[in-house]
Amino acid sequence: MSHSSDNAPQPTQPQHAQHGLHPKAETVADFQRHLAAVHARIAQACQRVGREPASVRLLPVSKTMDEPTLRLAYAAGLRQFGENKVQEAHRKWEAMADLADLRWSVIGHMQTNKAKLVAKFAAEFQALDSLRAAEALDRRLQAEGRSLDVFVQVNTSGEASKYGLNPADVAGFLRGLPVYSALRVRGLMTLALFSSEAARVRPCFVLLRTLRDRLRQDAPAGISLGELSMGMSGDFELAIEEGATVVRVGQAIFGARSLPDSHYWPTTPPQTPEPE
User: Fold this and answer.
1) CA distance 23 to 30
2) Environment class of residue 144 by beta-carbon count within 10 Å: exposed (0-12), middle (13-18) or buried (19+)?
3) What is the model's pTM?
4) Domains, in order of start, for the chain
5) Judging by beta carbons within 10 Å of its beta carbon (0-12, 13-18, 19+), is residue 192 exposed, middle or buried?
């Protein structure tokens, strides 16, 4: 059953198709204005389904953005950035090490040979989808004397181009995680179907929420499933209506990337096995 309200004034529609919708943020004032607009949209989506806006964490996605742009965003108040590519994120972390309170979230697929980098700098990893990756991360984290918040990535769209576990495999996967004591499992993450039709996007979010609700009843000790990371610039309102606690928003904050969303969206199946 959907969490969405029957008496919302207008149905929420994704905005993926509208490349160029978001002007580029070039000043601190631009960032402050964009952030205010995104927070207003979060609040409105929460209001439609009787949620508190404070129950949704905004994760600004800074992929493809350069260091000067990120420093402007920091000056506007941002203290966490989400990055898809491990090496790009690590490079930015090194360059911005003077900002001690800045947290980095890796939200894209990690080849196991990049676990050493993630263990050094990331505060959060949202794309855990194999025990091989869990073992590599845990080993590197133990060596660093660190622990890491992780989200289990689930493929809710059924697309071969997407990373993530099949929903039917998540329960078994969770049972294998408690041995990796440096990983703090916080919840589930998904990428919805890339579509401008709400009727095609919303079921991905509903599936993740219902899966989480079912699994949390008998999750292994130490495994928390309180968080749902789902929704991006084009569809985060739908995600909030369906229970998202983390929304990953890039272009609505930073402005349109140089190429349309479809360029960054995976169109070929993930390669296996991974190169070491």
Assistant:
1) 9
2) middle
3) 0.89
4) 28-252 (3.20.20.10)
5) buried
The letter for the amino acid at 16 is: H
Per-residue pLDDT of the chain (276 residues; tens, 9 = 90+): 445 444 444 667 766 544 457 889 999 999 999 999 999 999 999 999 999 999 999 999 999 999 999 999 999 999 999 999 999 999 999 999 999 999 999 999 999 999 999 999 999 999 999 999 999 999 999 999 999 999 999 999 999 989 999 999 999 999 999 999 999 999 999 999 888 888 899 999 999 999 999 999 999 999 999 999 999 999 999 999 999 999 999 999 999 876 655 554 444 445 433 332
Number of other residues whose CB lies within 10 A of the CB of residue 167 = 19
Structure tokens at 191: 């990428």
